[in-house]
Specification:
By secondary structure, this protein is α/β, with parallel strands linked by helices. It contains eight helices and twelve strands. Strands 6-9-10-3-11-12 form a six-stranded mixed beta sheet, with helices on both faces. It has a four-stranded antiparallel beta sheet with strand order 2-1-4-5. It has a two-stranded antiparallel sheet with strand order 7-8. α5 packs parallel to α6. The two termini are 22 Å apart. InterPro entries: AAA+_ATPase, ABC_transporter-like_ATP-bd, ABC_transporter-like_CS, FeS-cluster_ATPase_SufC, P-loop_NTPase. It holds the Pfam family ABC_tran.
């Protein structure tokens, strides 16, 4: 079983060392087979946590550790963390001209396989067509440049396509529900739910209970002022929908 452990994590923006820390002692454990939801007000460190786990060089870890299966991943680059099974579904996916969707996804799959065991092209195309059909994506999206000219909803659906094709061990999904209408939300949630199993875990960052109606989390954590201040089950998200975050204070964590 894979385990990701966030231990007393403190993080700053590397180019702004004089500014206060964004993360101020985050502790979080995610085991294989678990879906964690991370909620909280805007601007309190949720996306920073996901980006730091993935290895974005913009962020500087000043204290603490990120441990995957007993080994610190802090020395690893983004590509090495991806090969180790981490995946980030970005809040604002980048547009890349000159690289088609299909080319990008096949390269990502092959990067995690030995050079003498690359995915056969026909098998890849078969799996791609099947997965795009599940996500109700038109066939021509495979041949379009990565995210170029995509609507916000298409970009989010495309992140789930990559997730389902790459099969990471741990997926961090940063506001994958933002900008989606109810039909698209159901499709995206269905794709994530198809991934659920003993060899997959996910950290889902969201502000809204509506996503968690379709992807029911095992654990819900609330982040405020760069710390995890409360942790509970799926009912915690439902109660926050009614009460909001204002009554929660740093130091209230019950995990």
């Amino acid at each position: 079983m894979s385990i990701l452990e966030i231990k007393d994590l403190h993080v700053k923006v590397k180019e702004e060392p004089e500014h206060p820390e964004i993360l101020r002692g985050v502790n979080l454990t995610i085991k294989s087979g678990e879906i964690h939801a991370l909620m909280g007000p805007n601007g309190n460190g949720k996306s920073t946590l996901a980006e730091t786990i993935m290895g974005n060089p913009r962020y500087l870890v000043t204290q603490g550790d990120i441990v995957l299966d007993g080994q610190s991943i802090l020395p690893l680059g983004v590509d090495e963390r991806a090969r180790a099974g981490l995946f980030l579904g970005m809040q604002y996916p980048a547009e890349i001209s000159g690289v088609t969707n299909a080319e990008f996804i096949r390269a990502a799959i092959n990067a995690r396989r030995p050079e003498d065991d690359q995915v056969p092209i026909m098998q890849f195309l078969k799996d791609l067509d099947k997965t795009m059909a599940i996500l109700k994506m038109p066939e021509d999206m495979a041949d379009r440049y990565l995210n170029q000219g995509f609507s916000g909803g298409e970009k989010k659906r495309n992140e789930i396509l990559q997730l389902m094709m790459v099969h990471p061990g741990l997926a961090m999904l940063d506001e994958i529900d933002s900008g989606l209408d109810i039909d698209a939300l159901r499709i995206v949630a269905h794709g994530v739910n198809l991934m659920r199993g003993p060899e997959f875990s996910s950290l889902i960052i969201t502000h809204y209970q509506r996503l968690l109606d379709y992807i029911v989390p095992d654990v819900v954590s609330v982040m405020k002022d760069g710390e995890i201040i409360e942790t509970g089950g799926a009912d915690l998200a439902k109660s926050l929908e009614k009460t909001g975050y204002e009554h929660l204070k740093v130091g209230d964590a019950n995990a």
